[in-house]
């Protein structure tokens, strides 16, 4: 492993009453400015300026803003901040993947208040994998995050903050890229946690990220992955409108009940039905199904045929993910030959079925390897 671990520090705001500007809708900022008697047209101009500095300029201090009245910025700074959560550790894999361990504010004196965010550079795009919870309540048996108890949901600001921190570290701000060549082109809600168990904060964060006056990420370039929380699936389409990925992993309830235990609550029949009715951005867009390849568990040709059967009415892409081992895991990854045969059966049936290349394995940044272990990883300050 390339040892590029860094310890970084940044300004901390321990006062919980101080809000992050980047966790606010434009309308909320505008209301705040009204309280400072910034009227009508000026109000919307100032709101846009602030939004611009935050999301295009990437500023972290109000003092960097040079075209707004000082007095107004002073007033704002009493209740708001632009500072980020601090980075406890930064790692770079020898394949270029980057992982940040981020400190969040602790609640109820919890000792575990860290999350992980991963950047995966590829030839034509750069994907940021964002966390939605500290830990996860669902104990999928093949997932490292699932071994960590849920500590709490992230706020919208903490979700947006992950994108800003990555942009800071990658020097990916508009002002530094006049031709607007972005390093982060895609966002996937595939980090720690189940995003649909933190629906409102995830929705707000994604709405902020896609706002045209700010980061303006295209909804098509955002994918939300869920283990299958059926009642929220339609709402993802209607209220957020991003691409949907479903962690399927098995085409039979007997197997899925073990791998993804939430299946006992929302069995395959209901999950598939919700996917069949998923409101599409445009008629053609597909749902991605994630399928982790586990040796002798879900990788037979029979399993592939079952998969074809249950997905027959859904425009789908099936991502085959070679199992990424983690310390203490009980599963083994299917042989590559078996994975290729499995993919071919799906392909012959007309499904796009790419085999995902594991990235960042040397720094435990690949799918399902994320787990913030505060005690183990905490660096002496
Ligand atoms: N909780 C959400 C999103 C985060 S998990 C979900 O489950 O969809 C991101 C993806 O990685 C999911 O498809 C998950 O099933 C998969 N995954 C988890 N552990 C894995 C492992 N050890 N190897 C490969 N993929 C894994
Ligand atoms: Fe949670 Fe997703 Fe891991 Fe399951 S796979 S334990 S839902 S993070």
Quick take:
By secondary structure, the chain is α/β, with parallel strands linked by helices. It has helices at residues 26-35, 40-57, 70-79, 156-170, 199-210, 230-240, 253-259, 268-276, 301-310, 336-348, 374-377; strands spanning 19-20, 80-81, 87-92, 98-103, 114-121, 126-129, 133-134, 152-153, 186-189, 222-226, 243-247, 287-293, 316-322. The chain has 2 domains: 19-81, DNA polymerase, domain 1 (Orthogonal Bundle), CATH 1.10.150; 87-376, Aldolase class I (TIM Barrel, Alpha-Beta Barrel), CATH 3.20.20.70.
Give an account of the 3D structure.
The chain has 381 residues and is α/β, with parallel strands linked by helices. The chain folds into 2 domains: 19-81, DNA polymerase, domain 1 (Orthogonal Bundle); 87-376, TIM Barrel (Alpha-Beta Barrel). The chain is built from 11 helices and 13 strands. A 9-stranded mixed β-sheet has the order 3-4-5-6-9-10-11-12-13, covered by helices on one side. A two-stranded parallel sheet has the order 1-2. Helix 5 (199-210) packs parallel to helix 6 (230-240), helix 6 packs parallel to helix 8 and helix 9 packs parallel to helix 10 (336-348). The longest helix has 18 residues, at 40-57. It is elongated. The two termini are 24 Å apart. Residues 1-13 and 374-381 have low confidence and may be disordered. Bound molecules: S-adenosyl-L-homocysteine and iron/sulfur cluster. Iron/sulfur cluster (SF4) binds next to loops.
